[in-house]
Amino acid sequence: MRRLPFLLLTLLLLAGCAGAPAAAPSPGLTRYEATFLTLFDTVTTIKGYAADEAEFQATAQEIHDGLLEYHQLYDIYNEYPGVVNLKTVNDAAGGPPVKVEQPILDLLLFCREVYTETEGRVNAAMGSVLSLWHEAREAGINDPEHAALPDRAALEEAALHTDFSAVVIDEAASTVQITDPETRLDVGAIAKGYAVEQVCREAPAGLLVSVGGNVRATGPKADGQPWVVGVQSPDGDGEEFLHTLELSQGSVVTSGDYQRYYTVDGVRYHHIIDPDTLLPAAYWRSVTIVCADSGLADALSTALFTLPQEEGQALLNRWDAQAMWVDASGQQFYSPGFSDLIRT
Fold it and tell me: Is there a single domain that holds both residue 111 and residue 245?
């Protein structure tokens, strides 16, 4: 998606704010919503209540500005004036350490923890493999008649350079060094949710923030009622939901084979790659996670997508999270506490 200029973002924020129905949930408060398109290559919406439009716009702008900082720091494709980001770190692979800002250190420390706890199912050092799939997907979308899979030998060679131990994080010096010149970082399975979590921890209570489907509630609505969050059907058009969930605090994140994909010889190939097969994971159509932390929810949705249900449940138990799995036939499977969250 082409990034839009900041001026357009401001216009979208102004145009996206709309008043609530006549009956306000609390005296003096009105419901507003803002939408903008410039973060993490997806649509971001913010919903909440405020005394007036100006107050809500100020809150939405603060959230945007916080997310924009993370977006630029965690970008592996683009450079920004005066910003040392993950592209900078990747470009220096095999060379000396790169001095980075604290949010990059914090993210990579979290990535290392997730890598260890999921036994490599979520691996931010898998960029060499994921870049081959990214290039093939982009080429196939742009030229469907000549869409092709990545070369198998190239995938297997790239997989030799995906050990997270090649990513050396020096907290005292604020540096990151990739010691293997062929290793690349790709934080797509974690960064968006992680950024949402960090920004929402500092945001006012009572907001619902969605960044491309990574949903985070900072508290219930102004009337004390929970927000209602839809779980998209893998076969729908984005407006059809399998369930709606009630969420007062915490996150709902879904990973699905319908989100980013391309077609080769009539077969759909999605973007969530199984580290064992180096192919799109074939266990599930979608996995939805509900837990307190949006970054963790993002990571778990990817991990569980690449695992059988029993192994995924073991991860959920470790982190006090709930999940719903949807298989190829459309059958739904729930972790023990997920049903309690379902509204419809």
Answer: no
Secondary structure of residue 43 in the 3-state scheme: strand
Q: Region 289-310: what's the mean pLDDT?
A: 98
Cβ proximity of 265 and 303 under 8 Å:
no
pLDDT digits (tens, 9 = 90+) for 223-236: 999 999 999 999 87
Residue 318 lies in a domain: yes
Residues 121 and 268 in one domain: no
Asked if the structure places residue 30 within a domain, the reply is yes
Mean confidence (pLDDT) of the chain? 92
C-alpha to C-alpha distance for 35 and 57, rounded to whole angstroms: 11
Tens digits of residue pLDDT in 83-113: 999 999 999 999 999 999 999 999 999 999 9
SS3 3: coil
Q: Are residues 60 and 125 in the same domain?
A: no
Structurally, how many domains does the chain consist of? 3
Q: Which CATH number belongs to the domain containing residue 144 in this structure? A: 1.10.3980.10
Mean pLDDT of 73-85: 97
The 8 Å CB, 24+ separation contacts for 52-61 are: 53/17, 53/19, 56/17, 56/32, 57/13, 57/14, 57/17, 59/203, 59/204, 59/207, 60/13, 60/17, 60/32, 60/34, 61/13
Give the span between the Cα atoms of 307 and 274, in whole angstroms: 9
189 CB-side CA count, 13 A: 32
State which residues form the domain around 4. Answer: 1-76+189-213
| 219 belongs to a structural domain | no
DSSP states along 129-178? HHHHHHHHHHHHHH-GGG--PPPHHHHHHHHTT--GGGEEEETTTTEEEE
Residue 174 lies in a domain: yes
